[in-house]
Amino acid sequence: MAGRLRVASDVGGTFTDSIAYDEGTGTITVSKVSTTPKNRARGTVDGLRRAIALAGADGRDVGYVGHGTTTTTNAVIQRKGALTAFVTNRGFRDLLLIGRQNRPTLFDLSVVRPAQLVPQELCLTVAGRLGPGGVEIEPLDEEGVRAVAAELAARKVEAVAILFLHSYANPAHERRAQAILEALLPGVPVCISTEVNGEFREYERASTTVLNAYLRPVMHDYLASLGTLLADAEDGLGLAGDRPVMVMDAAGGLMSVESARLKPVHTVLSGPAGGVVASAHVAGLAGIDDIITMDIGGTSTDISLIRKGRPEITRTNTLETVPIRLPVIDINAIGAGGGSIAWIDEGGALRVGPMSAEAVPGPVCYGRGGTRPTVTDANLVLGRFDGESRLGGDLGLDVEAARAAIARTIAEPLGLDLVAAAAGILRVAHANIVRGIRVVSVERGYDPRDFTLVPFGGAGPMHGSPVARELRMPRVMVPPTPGILCALGQLISDLHHTFAETRIARWRPDGVSDALPAIRAQVDRAVRHLEADGVPAHRRRIEVKIDIRYVGQSYDLPIPVDIETAEFWAGLPDRFHAAHRARFGHADPSAPIEIVGFVVTGIGRIDKPVLPTLAAGTGSPAAEAVKGTRAVHFEPFDPTAPVTLHEAVVYRRDGLKAGDVIRGPAVIEEISATTVVYPGDTLTVHPSGSLIVEVAQ
């Protein structure tokens, strides 16, 4: 049956994960291949071909492709975007350079500011001015815009970003300048701030617009390469031209390829978003609504908190000191992954990360030329991996090389034996992750003990129990195909279009007559975009939030509302005070509040895969699920106690049945990840396929 497969791929720093879901049979096949840094589209297609082949199909059977990519994130980190110019009002040439005057390291006299995305000589100005209400104070100098175009052509710029003050209230000047520059600079993308982020705060709006322009040529080239390989029947996938291809955005939604080309800034920080969305979905199938996700890949650990089945969304974030003002899943990323390098600092202390061995050369045990030990090497030395196992199904591991590297660079300098040094590497990595989890939980008023830890990614399930134990979290849930969960998220996520508009005004009981037309205009805009994506009316959902703050405050809180209810406006003050108290621990119901703006999200619901339900077991794993036993070293909870050696039973995850109970120590192996059950822990297989681990405290 043509089009029966829904496939997705997620490109990470070390591995590219792919999944194929057969809508006819409900079966899932997965693959994990090494990321190809020189052309990430190549690894994407190779992984998809492997997953599709395992399903007994080919590219002609594919009806849908989802894709998550780190292309834009890497371009910013490595400063490999387009040569970009910035055009703004006369007198504001240094807007990007001045920024917000933040001082992350207040007393460090040797701080060197990172290079700006736009060199100062390409920050240009023109005359013209709008007031805060959008009223024209000075006409746009169109001849000045043409002079700017001539200079940019001479400098051979590759992209242009335009921001004029108060354009969020009246985009006329930006649109006219855009039209002139596009006519005089053919082939050069010209981005205006009101099309990227129609909110006040000129610095964040400028930064986000510049970032979008900086990434437009990069994303265009990448998607063109990906599209060519997807369509190529011989060297690629052979995908039919009418099959939809969707790209993951940073808010956990999907966007069309054309939207991704025009607004690539929405894909920045999107790498971990798919895993968060999939975690919420899979946890819901197991009856768990409040979770903390821990996505451990090769380079980083991405942490997010989910309450009542919904990820937390923020509209303020940064990447490599570049502010971004767009909806983004609230994720705390730290430099602690399977490829994080262990090293000794100048004070003689053991450190892990943030430097990573990445895909090339990778950990020492990969045999690709790496010489510095990593978390993966430590896990191998401690027996968490079988020395004969093959990561992703085909990557062999060199145990002796890992032993030698840890002994030479960690054990001998610290005067430790090999096992103690390897266990120390894990302890330091776990401490880094625990601190990261406290940032999204304790520091925001949430008790981790009220949540279930959901580890995923290729390395996540190996570290779930010790991290949960450190935080006194009672339970760990390992989802199905944990190493491929980000790719699964692209089959579960819906289409998203979010629009924000600034409308600053004090809240008045009769103010609804002014607010409602503005909100409905944004609702209509969202509906038009969903219509353009071909989403039928019965699959559309509109969400509205109103940004509110106390008069005199600098920052606001988003309050969800249902504009179809008569009391939505009258109830805003009480809802805002309650939200402020929950977020900051205090509220002042007697203080006046003001509306800052409206945020409307149009959601196009897509069909979700029906994940297979496991057959019921007898309570004990069947004999065919047992692979054997292996000597595994475990570091005890007490850091002063010695590492202990246990004979752990090794199970094949695909042989486990619903209701099977496993008591640690044990190891559960599958193609995408390995789950380690510590001594004293009890694992129960849920009918949804998740592994529920009760953590011994």
TrEMBL record:
Domain Acetophenone carboxylase-like C-terminal: 524-682
Any one Gene Ontology BP term: glutathione metabolic process
Molecular function in Gene Ontology: 5-oxoprolinase (ATP-hydrolyzing) activity
Hydantoinase A/oxoprolinase domain: residues covered: 205-497
Gene Ontology terms: cellular component: cytosol
Span of domain Hydantoinase/oxoprolinase N-terminal: 6-183
Pfam families: Hydant_A_C, Hydant_A_N, Hydantoinase_A
Protein name: 5-oxoprolinase
Species this protein is from: Prosthecodimorpha hirschii
